[in-house]
Design brief:
Layout (H helix, E strand, L loop, with lengths): L9 E6 L3 H13 L3 E7 L3 H10 L4 E3 L2 H6 L5 E4 L6 H10 L3 E4 L7 H14 L3 E3 L7 H11 L6 E9 L13 H4 L3 H17 L2 E9 L21 E8 L4 E7 L12 E8 L3 E5 L5 E6 L2 E7 L19 H4 L3 H12 L7 H20 L3 E2 L6
Parallel strand pairs: 1-2, 1-4, 2-3, 4-5, 5-6, 7-10
Antiparallel strand pairs: 7-11, 8-9, 8-15, 9-10, 11-12, 12-13, 13-14
Helix pairs in contact: 1-10, 4-5, 5-11, 8-11
Length: 373
């Protein structure tokens, strides 16, 4: 196995130099002495020139194929429109580069399956950017479940409410570029961590809706109207016997909350209930019969992964836990193991999200087959 170290760091290229990369991925790379950002790739030449200075990168390019082939690059982070994820991931796999990709991994499960198989067969580390798995309270919730502290899980419940402007989402509102709206952008995160907590989802019924046309840009220019959902919901049955309910919307007036919106995820078990809230990621709400829900601090050892250089008490708690995503990616590369969550996890979530669209169209329950590894 090739040895990486602070003197020989994992050299990372970011494809898609926009706000998500600047907000999540670059700070994570800068915290990790085992990693170095060496290249930025984007379709915008103006943005590339800004990032050359802002990020202090050696290489800037508008050609993702050239970046993936560059021997100075060990790993690629994909943060581009959904419709471009598959060709970039396939190029990275072809050139033996480790790859992390934003969610959803593709426009549908067939695309994601191709990405997973290509990276699996190439023997490269592959990771899906399901950020919320790294929230300290989510880590604590998983720990309590595994330890049997909640008893037998019975109900899962997820709410993700945002108060976004009703102007254009740009590429995100067109099916051929995004696949779907709130369902693929937000609810798919909650599908992923529900599967992580409670195991495979075996059947779902779901619905989506679009309430606003989004036919005007922020600066008042007319644009083609939205084709995707701004509300999504599903009911699911888990293989282990639990049931789940998910709802997401971008149109919940009054749920701005400093840009973070409202997030609530709850498990009711036979012994106790537990509630995760994004706004307080260092606390988990716990309660049982005769013992009403009340906040409990996340144990110190679960505030971050072991070895992460991040200070959990520095910065905005609902922001900084996201840097551990990059820590896990680099750790998997350095240690020669699979990353968690992987493209396989991204595929399982995508199959469920696709089933929601099928259920809505056909007005039926959809069975979810086991996805082979």
């Amino acid at each position: 196995m090739f040895k990486f170290s602070p003197d020989n760091p994992v050299k990372i290229a970011i494809v898609g130099a926009g706000a998500v990369s600047d907000y999540h991925h670059v700070p994570g790379i800068r915290l990790d002495r085992r990693a170095k950002l060496v290249a930025a790739c984007d379709a915008s030449e103006d943005l590339l020139q800004r990032r050359r200075i802002d990020w202090d990168v050696e290489v800037v390019s508008a050609d993702y194929e050239a970046v993936c082939a560059d021997p100075r690059v060990d790993a690629v982070v994909i943060a581009t429109p959904n419709c471009t994820h598959k060709p970039i991931a396939l190029a990275a796999a072809k050139h033996g580069k480790h790859v992390m990709c934003e969610k959803p991994l593709g426009l549908d499960a067939d695309e994601v399956r191709q990405m997973y198989h290509a990276c699996r067969d190439a023997g490269v580390v592959h990771m899906a950017a399901f950020t919320y798995r790294f929230a300290p309270s989510m880590r604590y919730l998983r720990h309590l479940l595994r330890a049997g502290e909640l008893g037998q899980p019975r109900h899962f419940r997820s709410q993700r409410f945002l108060d976004w402007p009703e102007t254009s989402w740009g590429w995100r509102q067109y099916k051929n570029q995004a696949g779907a709206g709130d369902l693929f952008d937000m609810t798919i995160h909650r599908i992923d961590f529900a599967i992580d907590l409670l195991g495979p989802i075996r059947r779902v019924c779901g619905a989506v809706a679009r309430f606003v046309p989004r036919d005007v840009t922020k600066d008042g220019r007319a644009c083609p109207p939205s084709e995707v959902d701004d509300w999504s919901s599903l009911i699911g049955e888990f293989d282990g016997g639990a049931v789940g309910v998910w709802e997401g919307t971008t149109l919940a007036k009054g749920y701005g909350m400093n840009g973070f919106g409202h997030e609530w995820a709850e498990i009711n078990g036979s012994k106790r209930s537990a509630v995760y809230r994004l706004h307080e990621p260092h606390k988990l709400w716990l309660g049982g019969t005769g013992d009403d829900l009340a906040p409990r601090d996340v144990p110190v050892e679960l505030l971050k992964p072991a070895g992460s250089p991040r200070d959990p008490h520095s910065g905005v708690p609902a922001t900084v836990f996201r840097y551990d995503l990059m820590w896990e990616f680099v750790s998997a590369i350095v240690e020669g193991r699979d990353a968690v969550p992987s493209f396989y996890d991204g595929l399982r979530a995508q199959v469920v999200a696709d089933a929601v669209l099928q259920s809505h169209e056909r007005r039926v329950w959809i069975e979810i087959p086991e996805e082979p590894r």
